[in-house]
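Input/output pair, single chain:
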Amino acid sequence: DYHGIIPILFKAHNEYMEGMKEVSKGEKFNQMAIYYDNPTGVQDRSKCRACIGFSVSTEKCTQQIKDQAQKLGLSIKVLPKVKSLGTNYPYKGKPSIALGSMKVYPAMFR
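Output:
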């Protein structure tokens, strides 16, 4: 299942959000995760696939932001428009990530 992603989200938030502040010019970078598998439909839950990152609109993704992301070891990917389900959960500290995934993920399947 996806419980193992929570420490990675914390680490990414602490390391990369700080590094991107200097080039953001007020642009807010939203942390995001893409979960590719439904853990209830996977035989081996440790095989669930996910991708984490930060979202920036293509209009506001300046060359300076791209350069800083590369300096930090991040890659820029443009996500295609696909049929998907998404949600936002307010970040009010580290527990928000854990609480958000525990509350939001089950609610999406109701």
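The longest strand covers residues 30-35. The beta strands are 30-35, 50-55.
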